[in-house]
């Protein structure tokens, strides 16, 4: 964490240093798509670096969206997406699908579920 | 890439267990977006930030921020866990409408949007209305109640905003949970009607 303050280039360059400069995630992940981490993968993530371990810890026991992970770890959205995509590929996180954007029946079903969920609140 | 359809061999770590949906909350600065999200979210509204290089800004003038190559765009959001396998997120749009790249990210795959309007500053809503119409995102207009603000008939406001008759227009008190809930229900109902009518136009009517 303290490396951030020591980096002479400041906070603007540092964020993508944790991804070794990569700004493109290896898969598309919507901001609302949720991720979960098993207790085993939280332990395994210790060997994947500090930032990935923090992400796994955030997702342990409670599904968290990409946006929530970014907010809780205080990392920019783009940086978080690169790391999360890596972790999904490495099997450290499980990516759940965001609501389907295509298919009439599929979309109607989700809308119907959201509607009754809201009415129950 | 779209995995919404048939997915014969799910990639490692990909799972259909939990579905998440989102509704977009738009409107001018100070119109009550975060208040609305906070009134119904189960978590205190969170903020996530995106970095943007000045090359991506377009109309931004880099000379105003000497030596700064990136800008931070913040957006607030909340969460409603509806079931173990269904979560609804509410995303507020960034205050400055010039950050369109962020809006694109926010509306992709969204159920629909609510545009909050302050009757004292109606023009603040125009950018959001134009944007959602261009992107064909179902939206409703919600007139936020502010103490002391002039009261208008809904028809007058509809005319001032130049929105079509099929766009729902409702009154709201963004501080009140029940009021917010009603607006969100309207957004989802409107999205369902739109989807149904698009389906009707795109396919031949069923025989019999």
User: What is the total tally of β strands of chain B?
Assistant: 7
Oligomer: heterodimer
Shape of chain B: globular
Task: Indicate the CATH topology of chain B.
Answer: Rossmann fold
> What percent strand of chain A?
5-15%
Stretches of chain B where pLDDT is under 50 for at least 5 consecutive residues are 1-11, 55-66, 204-208
Q: What distance lies between the first and last C-alpha atoms of chain A, to the nearest angstrom?
A: 40 Å
What structural class should be given to the helix and strand makeup of chain A? mainly alpha
Order of helices and strands of chain B: EHEEEHEHEHEH
- DSSP strand count of chain A: 3
Radius of gyration of chain B (CA) equals: 19 Å
Largest interface: A-B, 53 and 54 residues
Structural class of chain B: alpha/beta
Shape of chain A: globular
Mean pLDDT level of chain A = 88
CATH class of chain B: Alpha Beta
Instruction: Specify the helix fraction band of chain A.
Output: 40-55%
List the helices and strands and how they pair.
The complex is a heterodimer of chains A (121) and B (208).
Chain A: H1 3-6, E1 34-36, H2 39-44, H3 50-58, E2 64-65, H4 66-73, H5 77-89, E3 94-98, H6 104-120
Antiparallel strand pairs in A: 1-2, 1-3
Chain B: E1 14-27, H1 33-40, E2 46-53, E3 70-83, E4 86-92, H2 100-107, E5 112-117, H3 126-135, E6 139-144, H4 154-161, E7 169-172, H5 177-202
Parallel strand pairs in B: 1-4, 1-5, 5-6, 6-7
Antiparallel strand pairs in B: 2-3, 3-4
Helix pairs in contact in B: 1-5
Pfam family, one (chain A): DUF742
InterPro entries (chain A): DUF742 (IPR007995)
Protein name (chain A): DUF742 domain-containing protein
């Amino acid at each position: 964490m303290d490396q951030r303050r020591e980096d002479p280039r400041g906070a603007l360059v540092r964020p993508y240093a944790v991804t070794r400069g990569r700004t493109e995630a290896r898969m598309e992940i919507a901001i609302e798509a949720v991720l979960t981490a098993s207790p085993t993968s939280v332990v395994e993530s210790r060997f994947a670096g500090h930032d990935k371990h923090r992400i796994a810890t955030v997702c342990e026991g409670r599904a968290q969206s990409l946006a929530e992970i970014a907010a809780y770890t205080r990392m920019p959205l783009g940086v978080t997406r690169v790391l999360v995509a890596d972790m999904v590929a490495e099997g450290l996180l499980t990516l759940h699908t965001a609501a389907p954007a295509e298919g009439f029946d599929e979309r109607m079903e989700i809308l119907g579920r959201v509607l009754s969920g809201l009415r129950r609140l | 890439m779209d995995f919404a359809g048939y997915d014969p061999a799910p990639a490692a770590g990909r799972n259909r267990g939990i579905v998440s949906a989102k509704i977009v909350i738009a409107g001018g600065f100070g119109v009550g977006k975060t208040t609305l999200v906070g009134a119904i979210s189960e978590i205190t509204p969170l903020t996530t930030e995106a970095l943007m290089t000045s090359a991506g800004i377009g109309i931004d003038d880099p000379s105003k921020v000497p030596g700064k190559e990136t800008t931070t765009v913040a957006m607030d959001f909340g969460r409603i866990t509806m079931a173990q396998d269904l979560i609804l997120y509410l995303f507020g749009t960034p205050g400055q409408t010039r950050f369109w790249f962020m809006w694109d990210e926010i509306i992709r795959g969204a159920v629909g949007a609510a545009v909050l309007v302050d009757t004292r500053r109606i023009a603040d809503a125009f950018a959001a209305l134009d944007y959602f119409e261009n992107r064909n995102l179902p939206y409703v207009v919600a007139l936020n109640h502010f103490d002391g603000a002039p009261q208008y008939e809904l028809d007058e406001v509809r005319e001032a905003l130049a929105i079509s008759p099929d766009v729902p227009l409702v009154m709201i008190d963004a501080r009140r949970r029940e009021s917010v809930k009603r607006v969100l229900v309207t957004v989802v109902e409107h999205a369902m009607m739109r989807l149904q009518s698009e389906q009707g136009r795109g396919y031949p009517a069923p025989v019999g």
